[in-house]
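Collaboration report, partner site 2.

Our partner group contributed sequences for two proteins of shared interest, and the home lab folded both. The records are reproduced in the order in which they were received, starting with the first partner submission.
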Amino acid sequence: MSGYSILWSPWRAQYVKNAGKGSDKSCFICEAIKKHKDPESLVVYVNDSIVVLLNKYPYNSGHIMIAPLRHIKNLEDLTEKEWAEITKAFVNFKKALEKVFSPDGFNIGANLGRAAGAGLEDHLHFHIVPRWAGDANFMFTIGHTKVIPQSLDETLKELKKVIVELSESSKN
C-alpha cells in the first residue's frame, strides 16, 4: 500500500453512486426549500423570493448557491423582485464569505444547460465559489481529488452567524 494516500470523504458516496444515472427526478433545491429549517437542508438563508444554500458537493469551502424559490429554468423568467433579491444576496453573501473564509477571490455565475456544466438544469441557480491562490493544488491536478478542509455543518453554522451579524449591522 505504499506509494499512495487515501483521502476519506464519505459524503461523496451518494453523489458517485448516482452520477450520470439521472434516476433522481426530484429537485434538490425545492426539497431544501421545503425543509429549510432542518440543518440537513443546508439552507443558510431564505426569504419570500430566494433561497441561499450550501452546495452539497462543493468545489471549495463556502461554495454556495442562490436560487429563486420558484422552480424556473430560464433567466428571462425571473421577476424584477427575484433579480433584485439575487443581486442583493450576491453582495451580502460575498461579504459573509469574506468574513468567514478570507478568500483571495471569487467565481460567481451560473451554469445554464447541461453542456455548460449544470447538474440541475430545471431550477435556475447561481454559484458563489470562494477561491484562493493555489487552491487547485497537486491533489486536484494530479490526483483529480479536491480537498475540502471544513465540514458542511461547520460552514453552515459560521455563515448563518455572520449573515445575521451583517444584517444587524446594516440596520444601524
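Second partner submission, folded after the first:
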Amino acid sequence: MGNKSKPDRIDFGILTVLQNNARLSNKELAAEVGLAPSTCLERVRRLRSSGVLRGFHAAIDPHALGVELHALISVRIRRHSRELIEQFRRHAYSLPEVLTVYHVAGANDFLMHVAVRDAEHLRDLALDSFTARSEVEHMETALVFGYDQKHELPNYSQGKPGSG
C-alpha cells in the first residue's frame, strides 16, 4: 500500500475479489488483479496486519447445524449509561444464538439477529437471556421468514460505488 494507512485502488481490487471468493490461491488472486504473486501476497499481508482485511469466513447452511429459525430481537434498555449499554452488548454477543448485535438509535437500543433450533428455543432465549435481565425494559421479537446477505461491502472511500 503506497500510503500505509489508506488502501489504494489495487488494494480495493484485491478486497473486492476476496469478498467474492476468499478461497482463491495467491496466484489466482494475483492474476485477477494484475499483479505479480509476490507483490499480491505482500499487499494481502499488509491489508491483514493493518486490520483492513479482518479474516476469512466459511458460508455454512444453517440447517446443517440444526438452525431452523431466525429472528430479530429488539431490546430497549431501562436506563441509558455507558456501563449498562456495554454490559448488555457484551452479554448479548456472548450468547451462541446471537449472530449479530447492533446498537441502534430509535425506540429500541439493540437489534440482534439470532439463530435457534425452533420456536421453543426462541422463547427460552428471550425469557432466560433477555427479559430476565434487570437492565432490559422492553423486548420485541420478529420472526425471519427468509433473508439474503451480500458479502461485498460498497466502497465509499473513492466516491460513489460503481463510479470507478
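Feedback sent to the partner group on the second submission included the following. Residues 62-144 form a domain with the Alpha-Beta Plaits fold (CATH 3.30.70.920). The helical segments are 9-20, 26-33, 37-49, 82-94, 119-131.
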